[in-house]
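for ur thesis appendix - 2-hydroxychromene-2-carboxylate isomerase. copy paste whatever u need, i formatted it the way the template wanted (i think)
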Amino acid sequence: MKQTVEFFFDFVSPYSYLAYSQLESLPADISLRPMHVLSVMNAVGNTPTTVTCSAKGRYAAADLARWARRYGVALKRPDMRAMNNAACARAVLAAPSSEVAWQITTALFNACWRDGQTLTTTAEVLDALAAAGIETASLADLIDASETIEQLEKNNREAAERGVFGAPSFLLGESLFFGNDRLDFVREQLAGA
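the 3d part is after this line
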């Protein structure tokens, strides 16, 4: 039986996009755990230093380009400050099945980070999904529904309680791995178990 890796991510995080592009290479079942990373960071006392420190922000731009080349993926930055990443996360949570959740996640990461679209409203999120061929009629009412909003808040609380402090984060049992550059450690733990 395959082990499960929980993937805590946020669509506003380019490193989440990069990590997502590599998930199929993991010999594990992946549980998608969308979260609102700034809420989690606030809960645990973390600060988004690539946003607050201009030198780190400049470095991150070069670093992201290196990782995109290594992974062979396109990378075009949206306006991260304007992005409605919570609506993107709720779209995943509103999916009627795990298969559709994966399709939604792929479509939204591609729209945001491959194509550079800044999705600022629920309507724009739904438009991006429709453009990817995903049926959106059933999602439209669910994305902003109170139970979906509560599910995202629950994911945020659980992430913070389990030690997550940023995105992307991987939980394999109680072992936490932070960042797309830790995927080799995830693979090693999976191989050793």
